């Protein structure tokens, strides 16, 4: 049940990103669900491999290269998703992934408080 709730809230976070930033477009809630699933899969499967492979660059940049990896995962998900989820270039992916991370953090914090009753 928690996994489905997290998936739905991730889709809502993507819709918020598309609303706040014009570099990211989402055509429908269904497209947001698919995009959230793809972002989650990319982050679970591809991102750890990229983090290990780029560890020297990440160390040299004091961890800032992780932002580039997050943007690439965001952009890759839009490429896989098709026309329902569109990211207009790398810089849009970077800004979109930052917004997505912040909004997801806020949503998860609020839902954690609601579920725990605090």
TrEMBL record:
InterPro entries per the UniProt record, alphabetical: Phage_holin_4_2
Keyword Membrane appears in the UniProt entry: yes
Transmembrane segments: 28-46, 53-77, 89-116
Keywords per UniProt: Membrane, Transmembrane, Transmembrane helix
Keyword Transmembrane: yes
Protein name, per record: Phage holin family protein
């Amino acid at each position: 049940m928690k996994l489905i709730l997290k998936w739905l809230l991730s889709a809502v976070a993507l819709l918020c990103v598309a609303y706040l930033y014009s570099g990211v477009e989402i055509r429908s809630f269904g497209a947001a669900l698919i995009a959230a699933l793809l972002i989650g899969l990319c982050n679970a499967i591809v991102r750890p491999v990229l983090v290990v492979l780029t560890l020297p660059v990440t160390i040299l940049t004091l961890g800032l290269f992780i932002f580039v990896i997050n943007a690439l995962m965001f952009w890759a998900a839009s490429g896989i998703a098709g026309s329902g989820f569109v990211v207009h270039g790398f810089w849009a992916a970077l800004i979109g992934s930052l917004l997505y991370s912040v909004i997801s953090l806020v949503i998860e914090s609020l839902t954690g408080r609601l579920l725990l009753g605090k």
